[in-house]
Amino acid sequence: MEYAGRIKLLVFWYDLMPHDIVQHETPVLTEAFRQLNAYLAGELRVFSLPLAPSGTPFQLRVWKILEKIPYGQTLSYGEVAGRAGNPRSARAVGMANNRNPIPIFIPCHRVIGADGKLVGYGGGMEMKAKLLAIEGRGEISE
Q1: Lowest pLDDT segment from 18-32, 69-83, 107-121
Q2: Closest of 33, 109, 32 to residue 71, by C-alpha
Q3: Tens-digit pLDDT profile for residues 37-46
Q4: Which of 113, 50, 58, 116 is nearest to 83 (CA)?
Q5: Could you confirm whether 108 is annotated as catalytic?
Q6: Between 83 and 120, where is the model more confident?
Q7: What is the pTM of this model?
Q8: CA nearest neighbour of 140 among 112, 121, 106, 108
Q9: Does residue 2 lie within any of the structural domains?
């Protein structure tokens, strides 16, 4: 797979930047920044960016499912597992979410517990709640 001109990684401000990453502005990064700001302002519902996450076949399958969860909606880990072809793999879905290299653009924040509560998010539970609030999900308890 050709990765030039595609987004492979999004790191949060508190994450350590991988040492082998060369940082420079590109048209794709400029557009990603624009779309992310519009999303955070509640002005954009669907990202249209060239993504190139790297992962196992199962992770890639899960991430494709996450990309299809509509803005403002959520699925449980079990529902994602079922859509991935193995309804008993909710824990593996959780691990795939944990390994998601492009959070927000691949919306793992839209996956919640079977009981409707917030569980697990690499960016922290407060950020997950804020992202869902931006999308109009209102208050979801932890």
Answers
A1: 18-32
A2: 109
A3: 999 999 999 9
A4: 58
A5: yes
A6: 83
A7: 0.87
A8: 112
A9: no
Quick one: tokens of 90? 């909710």
For residue 142, is it within any domain?
no
Q: What is residue 119's three-state secondary structure?
A: coil
Q: How many domains, in total, are found in the chain?
A: 1
Query: Is the pLDDT higher at 12 or at 10?
Result: 10
Structural domain for 84, as ranges: 57-134
CATH of the domain at 116: 1.10.10.10
13 within some domain: no
Q: Is residue 118 part of a domain?
A: yes
> Among the options 10, 66, 108, 131, which is catalytic?
108
Per-residue HEC secondary structure of 106-127 comes to ECHHHEECCCCCCCCCCCCHHH
CA-CA distance, 60 to 63, in Å (whole number)? Answer: 5
CA angle 86-73-3, nearest 5°?
70
Dihedral sign for Cα 30, 33, 49, 62, please: positive
Percent of the chain with pLDDT over 90: 65
